[in-house]
Amino acid sequence: MDEDTQESIPQFKELDDVLNCGICHEILTTPVITACSHTYCSICIRRWLSGKQECPSCATAIYESTLRKNTIVGNILDAVKNVKRLLGKNASMPSIKSSTRCLNVQDEFGDEPKNRTIKTTPPATPKQNHSAQPTKTPMLLPKTPSPMVQKFPKVEVNSTPGGGTPTALDNDHSPAFKVPCPVCGTIMAQRLVNSHLDRCLLEPKTRSSETVKSPTPTVNSAAKTSIAKSSNSAESNPSLQPIKKMVYNLLSDKQIKNELRKYGLAIQGDRSTLLSRLKRFVILHNAECDSTTPKTLSEMKLLVEREEKAMAGSSASSFSQMFKRTDNPQEIDNALKEYRTQQKASYQKLIDEVKKRNKHKPSKKEECVILSDTEDEDDPAPIPVPQHEPLPVPESAHAMNSRQADSDCDKSGKKTNHGNASDSDDIACTSKSRKSTNHRKMTKNVKRKCIESESEEDEGENEIRQAKQWKRAEQTTSPVLPRSTPARQLRSRTAQNKAIQKRSVSSPQSQTRNSQRIKQPPSKKVLERGGGKDGLSSSSDEEIPSKRSIGVKQSKQRSPTPDPDIFESSPASSILFPCGQKARCDDSGNEALSALVNMIDNDGGSTTDFDE
Amino acid sequence: MAGSALRRLMAEYKQLTLNPPEGIIAGPINEENFFEWEALITGPEGTCFEGGVFPAKLVFPSDYPLSPPKMQFTCEMFHPNIYADGRVCISILHAPGDDPMGYESSAERWSPVQSVEKILLSVVSMLAEPNDESGANVDAAKMWREDRNEFNRIAEKIVRKTLGLS
What are the UBZ4-type domain coordinates in residue numbering (chain A) (predicted)? Predict the structure, then answer.
């Protein structure tokens, strides 16, 4: 019926919107008003307030005890319903049901859409029904059609004086919206009483009931209605009082059962079931207390049972299953592992490429060291780090971890030296060979020295120290990873010095960093630290620093990462090399390395987020 | 209550079908199960996501609308407020009291007067104006802040991908 009326009279849409409950998005049922002047269905707002004490619309703190019945909105709803029913039906024989009765019936079938009318009484005059709605009583029509009716072409106004007067009174009508005719005593809808009265007074003889000497042409229908309402509700449910608030958590099982028994509810199930049942009933019961025609206890009981059943069979389980957060470190590890195996080919390609390039350079084992030079940093790792500062932190964490784990497993307790040193061989290889090429070109009058063995030892020492510190900083189990890929190590290498410096702060975070990237929500802290890898961004501002210092400065300026202190790590790195040896790299080394890192980026090294 | 959730979802579905907001389509994946919806969101005009059509999945709890639904993009996304797995991190989807980032005011969180339509509109505006204060995707947030051009480039790539162009 709503569809039809809405289509023909768009104003009804507006009216419906206004009379909609914000929570259930349906026409209000038993409207109540909150302290902040918002109106909802009694049951809807009570359900919500059982969880949160705030208004859904304005977030003001409100309490169930402050809810008040919104009588006037209730009356408006009933009036609108009546009008709609009149318009929706062919007006030749409109069946005007008591709206309250209608509401009541629908409420009994809580799971049905509210607008659907449930046939509870057999239609009295089925022949003129155009819609599926049952006609309860043939009623009189107003003699003069309302302007609304005139606008509505479908409505055919049939003023049948006298003929339409109901002869049989429907006794199961709730009198809430029916008023007896003061003349003949016929019960009818209040809005029809005036027109009926006119007729009734004209033909007093046809009325069986006693004549009234002074008919009141202006019936205070509202007053009558309210009287009728109150009397009705008092009759049907004289003892319906709101259940007082209980502190559910303090109730013992026995008390809960007692309460349930008091209202004739089932007492099967565990405590949580019982509690939810009781809560559900109390909400429903208290909502019914606001209703003009409350349900009986048995009806409520039925509803509670049905609700419970529906909840049990609902999709609650699938909801929680669909989005699961992986807190399980094993799963995260597996994801990482998978990623590594996926990317292994590209890493391998890079390594091969580098090796091939290095084949042409003869002095692979040579390492140039400028003893006197203090100007430059001497990372044992490739140079392009400045462009990738934040990246290596997490990587290094993992590399460390894996290495540590490797050594732990391989050497079984005997920690490190050789295991670590050998593990880091590939990196040492690549970086060193690179350096050697650089220096071959550049250093003509510098002291040459083969420090292969030495530097390796140094690195081994580094590893040990780092591993120990890591252990200290973080006692958690280090995830067993596949042997960290050389390319990753290569990159991570540069950050190790920094990592050492900042270990106490960064280690726990950076260790969990990778896993966060994959599944977990990052904490705000991580963001502020700027720990994200910006491989993607850096690949764009990739440049070949022809002059190293300038390049560094530029990248410093260009990338305002929150970790500028990577550049300050040079002193630390010199400390790390106890011999005070300083490696020096020249431009071509930079070039090649940046190209390498660039390649890693392009090969998906930094597109973790997309691939997963 | 599952009944009321179903009724409400049906009402919302009807509403969305009759008066669809611009650039948004949403409805149950399967009419048998009204608790799982699919939505298509077009990227807001004048932003880096312009032209894209992003599919997402919405899952409703059985006590909807008392609890908020969850939303997950099913396509690749690169956005500060979308996790790598596509889950959307937006205040309207957070129940009051559940404040993962610790800064949301109660007024902008989920309440039963919100609706699917409002959620989807919020997501559209989120696409247009990422909130880099609460980074669900830290890398994206960082890039949004520091390297907007690169961010735009990636967004464009994603848009092309959702359209099947690359």
Answer: 178-205
